[in-house]
Amino acid sequence: MTECVFCKIVSGEIPSEGVYKDELVTAFRDINPAAPTHILIVPNKHIAAVSELSEEDEQLMGHLFTVAQKLAVKEGISQSGYRLIINNGPDANQVVFHLHLHLLGGQKMRYPMG
Ligand code: AMP
Ligand code: ZN
Fold first, then answer.
1. Closest by alpha carbon to 82, among 100, 67, 68?
2. Inside any domain, residue 114
3. Given the DSSP bridges, would you call strands 18-21 and 37-43 parallel, antiparallel or unpaired?
4. At 83, which helix (H) or strand (E)?
5. How do beta strands 101-105 and 25-29 pair?
């Protein structure tokens, strides 16, 4: 998956403003933030989208959420609130086909966005 921008961020081939990394996931700031806190949390292994998940990824997906929860505390938005978004496919405007969880916060948000 050498053409995948998020695989390249995971490997360090493309620079990013990293905020967290472990054996399963990498988190970094979105290059075009839509809120004061806008972090992307991605699996280290390439999964194109939620539609490509398999049951063996269940633990990994749970881990994405607990990392998001901890990063929200670290960012100081745990009490004020935050939104977690995963876009899947064209109607959701998924642009990067490496699964990622958006962590958005630091301002009052309307629903839905965009
Ligand atoms: P999505 O619509 O869910 O696929 O969103 C992709 C997100 O990735 C967008 O919010 C982009 O701003 C963000 N993005 C794309 N390239 C980079 C990059 N090199 N570093 C950080 N964020 C990126
Ligand atoms: Zn990838």
1. 68
2. no
3. unpaired
4. strand 82-85
5. unpaired
Ligand 1, residues at Cβ distance < 6 Å: 5, 14, 16, 28, 30-32, 40, 87, 93-96
Q: Which residues, in sequence order, are bridge partners of residue 26?
A: 21, 42
- The reply to whether 100 belongs to the active site is yes
Q: Which ligand is nearest to the CA of 8?
A: 2
- Pair 40, 102: CB distance under 8 Å: yes
For residue 41, the domain's CATH number is: 3.30.428.10
pLDDT tens digits along 54-98: 999 999 999 999 999 999 999 999 999 999 999 999 999 999 999
* pTM for the whole structure: 0.97
For residues 65 and 114, what is the distance between their CA atoms, to the nearest angstrom?
A: 23
